Amino acid sequence: MGLRGEISQRQRRFGDELRRLRSAAGLSAPEAGALVGMKSPAVSHTEAGRISLNQERLNVWLDAYGCEDPAYRAGLADMGRGSGKGWWSAFANKVPDLALDLAELEDRSVRLDSYDTLYIAGLLQLPAYAEAIYEDAYRAGASWDISTAVDFRMQRQRILTDGKDRQFRFVIHEAALRMRFAGDAVMRAQLRHLLDVAELPNVTIQVLPFTAPKHGPISASFLVCDPGCSDLSTIVLSGPKRAEHLGDPTDVGDYRHAFQRLADNALPAVDGRRDLCELPSRDSWGLVQHLLYLLQT
């Protein structure tokens, strides 16, 4: 079997997990290869995500590595045999590979926790808001087509209402809600859109206000993607031209803890369905409404 020329985030993570398990079991690459009739270079290529691994060999390795968690074994097997194809495949070579990786990662998740500082999360953006972001990136030298990039971002949002059992939690810093780079009219529509999306039963939106006590805010945005097995969760740290994916259990635990701390310090969730007299003295719904008022004065 030939080596893959392009390695997706999912394939790379699958290989990283195999390497981590082997190292924890104290086995060398030649020793692991001998268990399944593979030479050492083939083991290295498998752990780098360059070649696939069939279910039989995977089971032999997991047994030898002492991996007994059925949820983890099933999740890892699913990760290894995934085709990587989905609606995002139509955008190959039209948007950056990191965008394709993100779409696949989100699609494989059953829970996503998103913390955003200066921009509203992509899954919550209106087309005009996303277009304003991409126009800035285009002026900075991006080579992809803006309309295609906006369309791709809108397609990502299908997971909010695709009928699958997914849960979403968003913590958005107040700074992102006060940004006016897209223009006042767009921001008014965007804030109203947040209130609309917050009515979905599987979506929770909280605002971290400038006045949040106890802890300073985390400066960088991040996304926690949980595929249904916490040990296979991925942290996504996005930048303008690249994304960093963290899968080490310690890193995942740290970011999960950080997100929960942010949620605890944020205002109560947006909930426009509650009667005004039942709302707490300050909540996310009230702050968004206040910002809407300021945009109309």
Question: How are the SSEs ordered, and which strands pair?
Answer:
Layout: H1 9-25, H2 29-36, H3 40-47, H4 55-64, H5 70-81, H6 97-107, E1 111-116, H7 127-139, H8 146-156, E2 167-173, H9 174-178, H10 184-197, E3 203-208, E4 222-226, E5 234-238, E6 243-246, H11 249-265, H12 284-295
Overview of the structural elements:
With 297 residues, the protein is an alpha/beta fold. The protein folds into two domains: 9-81, 434 Repressor (Amino-terminal Domain), CATH 1.10.260; 87-295, Endonuclease, Chain A (2-Layer Sandwich). It contains twelve helices and six strands. The chain has a six-stranded mixed beta sheet with strand order 3-2-1-4-5-6, with helices on both faces. A hairpin with a 7-residue loop joins strand 4 (222-226) and strand 5. Helix 2 (29-36) crosses helix 3 (40-47). The N and C termini lie far apart (65 Å).
Summary of the model, kept short:
46% of the residues lie in helices and 11% in strands. It has 12 helices and 6 strands.
Poorly predicted runs are none
Helical residues, percent: 40-55%
Estimated radius of gyration: 21 Å
Described by strand count, sense and barrel closure, the largest sheet is: 6 strands, mixed
The CATH class of the largest domain turns out to be Alpha Beta
Structural class given helices, strands, pairing? Answer: alpha/beta
Strand content: 5-15%
Q: How many domains comprise the coordinates?
A: 2
Q: What are the key terms here?
A:
single chain, 297 residues, alpha/beta, Endonuclease, Chain A, 2 domains, six-stranded mixed sheet, 6 strands
